[in-house]
Every structure is written in structure tokens, then in C-alpha cells.
Amino acid sequence: MKTVLGIETTCDETAAAVVSVDPDGMPQIRSNEVLSQIAEHAVYGGVVPEIAARAHVEVLDRLVARALERAGTSLADLDGIAVAAGPGLIGGVLVGLVTAKTLSLVANKPLLAVNHLEAHALTARLTDGLDFPYLLLLASGGHTQLVAVRGVGDYVRLGGTIDDAIGEAFDKAAKLLGLGYPGGPAVERMAEDGDPERFALPRPMLGRRTADFSLSGLKTALRIEAERIAPLAERDVADLCAGFQAAVVDVVIDRARVALRGFSDVAGRPTALVAAGGVAANGAIRRALAALAGEAGLAFVAPPLALCGDNGAMIAWAGLERLRLGLVDDLTAPARPRWSL
Ligand code: KG4
Ligand code: ZN
């Protein structure tokens, strides 16, 4: 059995987890500790990097201790220390990386410097034992990409956003409508009671031949509608949320359809359509992607909600995948605020 500790500090979640793989390759999440800083950032309407870094410093050592304790293991029993070395906010990344390097040095265990996006991309293998290759929609607050996942470290980008990430668009829509931070869950909740057809919002990039996204125009259209009918009653906000979410769903499905067509040229036939990243928590997007996958005769896989957002288990798992291939790092591993897949 191989056991790895995973540490995540790239944004506003401090997380530590222990994941094991038995000799048959069966993974087990033995602990998964997440401390969200949402409350600390909410008053500012978004993540404040300085506050995030400081908050990671304050809790990470205790969180690691708790993750080890809950897993019933100790540093000495680990086979590696995995950490998200980027992309993300540099202050937070440094906190996680320096902590992981120290543990690696003290316990004499291999360091696994993981790409945060790769960890999101590989989560479906942890939860569903998926085989390569698969088509991935990776959508979070900072990223939106459609990727052919061919293997560990082997990714072909089929499309991405040319302006805002999907999560960012949800966050901005929520801020505009006074729904607070983070926006995705708030907009989704309001949209449940809204009429998606009351406002005619645009579907940017629909019908384009490349699988790229553009979301800033949708956000602007939403603002114009909101200003036109201000002051907003609760019903207005619900209808605006429903209209916005429906537009995003249409865009996502159209873009994913284009990516599915392009997939075979670079990777053959996919084993599944996979959604990952915080936005994969959105029920409307999940349902629409599941329907698209069904149409294409593919399985649809999305991690359970707790593993959609940032967490330590996905970092530990990516570390295990890399360890299995001998892809270990040493203490010179850099913090990489920008790091594409
Ligand atoms: O992956 P994640 O936890 O952190 C990043 O790496 O960014 O994703 C957070 C993003 C936020 O923008 C948040 O608003 C969005 O995911 N999100 C959602 C939902 N839950 C979280 N977006 C739409 N619907 C949701 N239910
Ligand atoms: Zn993330």
C-alpha cells in the first residue's frame, strides 16, 4: 500500500488529506480536512491574497496534524508528501510548498510538486477509476478549459476562455446582484425559482468552430438588464440568475460539443465526459453535461461535491499518480503562480 499526504493552499481553501492506494490500485481517502476562508474574504467580495496567505500560515500545521491523525497514520508511515505548487496566489502557494518541503526533509520522504489543475483533472480517476483518455471540462474561479486528458502529464487543450473563467462570471454576476461571495452557489440557489426566459441574454461564441469560451459579454448584458429594471425586487434577481445560468449552460454545452468533435483527432475515442473544478458543483451544468454525454454514448463523471472544490485529497491522489510513475521532485521545486496544464 502507498500512502501520500496532500496539501492545498493555492487559493482560499486550506486543505490537507491522506490518500492510500492498495496493491490492486484501489484508492481510499483516509482523511480530507478543508478549512474555508470564505468568511474572511466575504466582506471584500473576493479573495484578498494577503489575507489568504496569512490565514494559510495560521492553520496549516494543525490541519496537517489533524489529517494524519484522522487517517490513523503518521509522517513516518507516508510514502510521499504532495503539495499544489501552483498555479495560484503566490503567497498561499509558498506557504504550502515550504511546509511540504520541510515535512519532506524532516521525514525523509519524496516531495511531489503537483499542478493544481492536474489534480482537478485526475480526480475522476480517484472517484470513479476512470481510464484514459477522457474529455474534461475544467471550470473554476480562475480557469475554464476543455482538455483531452490522455495520461498523467499528457494533456491537449481543445479550448479555453478568452476572458473570464466560468466561476469568475458567476462570482461577478452574484456581486452585481448583491448576492455575496462566492457567487456560484448563490446564483444557482436564486436561479431555482427564476424564469430563465424573461431576459434575453446572449450566448457568446455559440456555433464557433473552436471550443473557446467568452463570458465577459454575458456579464455586461446582465449588468445592462439589471440597471434597466433597477431597483431589483427578489423576483427580478431570481429571473436574472436563472437567465444567466441558462445562458452559461447553453454556452458550455455548445463548446463541449465542439470539443467532443475535436477529441478524436488528438486522442481517439474518450472513455467519458468529465467535469471538474468548483463550477462542476452546479446542478444545471451537471445535468446538461450528463445529457450531452448520453447523446454521444459516453459516461458522464463528475466528482462528488466535496471533491469538486479545492481539497487535499485531489492533491494527494495526483501525487500518488506521479509517484507510481517515478515523477518525484526535490527541494528545488519552484512555486509556480502561473502554470498551465
Ligand atoms: O475549484 P474552486 O473551488 O477554486 C478555484 O480553483 O477557483 O472553484 C471555485 C469557483 C468559484 O468561482 C465559485 O463561484 C464556483 O467555483 N462555484 C460554482 C458553484 N459552486 C462553486 N459555480 C457555479 N455553480 C455552483 N454551484
Ligand atoms: Zn481549484
From TrEMBL:
It is an enzyme of class 2 (transferase). GO terms for molecular function: tRNA N(6)-L-threonylcarbamoyladenine synthase activity. Its cofactor is Fe(2+). It comes from the Bacteria. InterPro entries: ATPase_NBD (IPR043129), Gcp-like_dom (IPR000905), KAE1/TsaD (IPR017861), TsaD (IPR022450). It catalyses: L-threonylcarbamoyladenylate + adenosine(37) in tRNA = N(6)-L-threonylcarbamoyladenosine(37) in tRNA + AMP + H(+). Residues 28-317 form the Gcp-like domain. Binds 1 Fe(2+) ion per subunit. Substrate binds at L138, A139, S140, G141, G142, D171, G184, E188, N282. Its EC number is 2.3.1.234. Pfam families: TsaD (PF00814). It is found in: Cytoplasm. Keywords: Acyltransferase, Cytoplasm, Iron, Metal-binding, Transferase, tRNA processing. Fe cation binds at H116, H120, D310. Belongs to the KAE1 / TsaD family. Required for the formation of a threonylcarbamoyl group on adenosine at position 37 (t(6)A37) in tRNAs that read codons beginning with adenine. Is involved in the transfer of the threonylcarbamoyl moiety of threonylcarbamoyl-AMP (TC-AMP) to the N6 group of A37, together with TsaE and TsaB. TsaD likely plays a direct catalytic role in this reaction. This is tRNA N6-adenosine threonylcarbamoyltransferase. It comes from Methylobacterium aerolatum.
